[in-house]
Design brief:
The chain is mostly helical. 79% of the residues lie in helices and 1% in strands.
């Protein structure tokens, strides 16, 4: 009967269903929009708590507001380090599926904090490794505003880079910030241009060196393990060697960084310590790999399982090394401000207070947890496809390149090295694929023709990401410098 169609009660229920549908869509949309706001809200809570803590800590001093403001911006900087820089250490392991996103965040938070608090920050060059001459900004007030501008500008630049999905160097951001503030405060003569030249050279040297070493190790794995007739037997021979090289590189690096509070170790001694740990690790891991390989099928998929645990350890050690090295550089301007406020003078080197390193360590963990997954996915899977063997080459390259750079005295960036290693692996795979295709065509009478468009589509490194990242690297120092100079002039005008 047609009465139900025109029944007012029935129409009311239909209207109610539509309204409920709209409400449910509104709730879904609200939840979708609110998700990123939760991270921002928690980050603001951390920044506010840091400000209150600094106020309590320096509450008795008349100039405590300056330190409170510096602590707030230091916390903001630490959050951005966690969101951007740490992705380079964990991205390859996540991309290779050796770690889940949650596991990577937990391990990185623990080891970054441990590196910052245990091995980092005893004495750091707070003028960003001699970028500007302290005599040029000898007036305490000018020095404080210059360091404040450097802190704000570098944090803002890293935040912007994270937003657009570009892994940049926080150390180079600080370098640019200090340079820009120094120029605004004392002119171009205040800048140490030879040091800036060395840093500019490192923009090219560190990613190229990282990429070359990573590609070299991948070539070794392919020739000595993957393309062997008995892959498992080859893996039993070579995987312990690769793990020993990793152990040697990390123990050498950590001997230099981790023991510096107790004893000063030169490069020769640290290499000897590394060699000893490498030999010990080889004899420990050889029977373990042999046991692991029992019953594995003679195919590439089986090889991946042998690299899983070493890859997790390498990611953890990279995080520790990053915490020991980069965190101190990033909170250096904050330490410089605290020193200037406490003692009323400027210094090229100061001891970083423990509470400043705590802000750095906790801020990094928070930033990684709240905003890190975006860059982890970028580095781990969106530049080129990684498996455990390729990711291990990236981690191994990062460790060795840092050792070489320390030996040569080059101010390199861990970001540039790690991402350069990912590019190196990807470009080597492209070259290797083309080479095999050419060999196949030369040995076959009728080779399969592949159109130019199809060959471009098969490229194993995403060119859009490559261009975005390289562009971000190139403009990091000048962009942070310009931003810092403007911020310094504004602050100086407001508080003159």
């Amino acid at each position: 009967m047609g009465d139900d169609v025109t029944d007012p009660t029935n129409n009311q229920w239909k209207t109610l269903d539509k309204d409920l549908g709209r409400v449910s869509h509104m709730e879904y949309a609200t939840n979708y929009v609110a998700r990123p706001m939760v991270g921002t809200g928690l980050a603001l809570v951390f920044i506010v708590i840091t400000g209150f803590g600094a106020a309590l800590f320096f509450g008795q001093q008349p100039v405590s507001l300056v330190v409170v403001a510096a602590a707030i911006f230091g916390a903001y900087m630490a959050l951005n380090i966690g969101a951007n820089d740490v992705a380079n250490n964990m991205g390859p392991a996540v991309g290779a599926k050796a770690l889940t996103m949650g596991g990577a965040i937990i391990i990185a938070a623990i080891f970054e904090s441990a590196g910052a608090l245990l091995a980092g920050g005893d004495v750091v060059s707070t003028i960003a490794k001699g970028i500007i001459d302290p005599a040029g900004v000898s007036e305490t007030r000018v020095f404080i505003w210059a360091m404040m501008a450097a802190l704000i500008s570098s944090a803002m630049w890293v935040n912007l880079a994270t937003f657009v999905g570009a892994p940049v160097s926080t150390t180079h951001s600080v370098v640019g910030g200090v340079m820009g503030a120094g120029i605004a405060a004392a002119g171009f003569a205040a800048v140490n241009w030879p040091t800036m030249g060395a840093i500019a050279a490192s923009w090219v040297i560190s990613p190229v060196l990282g990429g070359a070493i990573a590609a070299g190790f991948l070539a070794l794995i392919k020739s000595r393990i993957i393309y062997q007739e008995d892959k498992i037997a080859a893996a039993r021979k070579w995987v312990p060697v690769l793990i020993a090289i990793m152990a040697a590189a990390f123990s050498s690096y950590l001997a230099t960084k981790g023991l510096k509070k107790i004893i000063k170790i030169d490069i020769t001694t640290s290499l000897a310590i590394g060699a000893a740990f490498g030999v010990i690790t080889y004899f420990i891991t050889r029977p373990i790999i042999r046991r692991q390989s029992i019953g594995l099928e003679n195919r590439n998929k089986s090889l991946k399982t042998l690299f899983m645990i070493p890859l997790v350890f390498s990611a953890a050690l990279l995080s520790f090394a990053h915490g020991a090295n980069d965190v101190a550089n990033a909170v250096g301007p904050l330490a410089a401000i605290v020193h200037a406020v406490e003692f009323g003078d400027t210094a090229a080197k100061v001891t970083i207070p423990t509470w400043v390193m705590v802000i750095g360590a906790i801020g990094i963990s928070f930033g990684l947890f709240l905003f890190g997954p975006k860059l982890i996915r970028m580095v781990g899977g969106q530049i080129t496809k990684l498996n455990p063997m390729r990711a291990y080459c990236v981690a191994l390259s990062a460790a060795i390149t840092v050792i070489i750079a320390s030996w040569l005295g080059l101010p390199v960036s861990s970001t540039h090295i790690a991402v350069g290693a990912v590019f190196g692996v990807g470009f080597f795979r492209e070259w290797h694929m083309e080479r095999r295709a050419r060999l196949n065509r030369s040995t076959m009478k009728e080779g399969k023709f592949v159109a130019v468009e199809e060959r471009k589509r098969r490229k194993l490194v995403r060119r859009s990401h490559f261009m975005t990242i390289v562009a971000a690297w190139v403009i990091t120092v000048p962009a942070a410098a310009v931003l810092s100079g403007v911020i310094f002039l504004v602050i100086d005008a407001l508080f003159a």
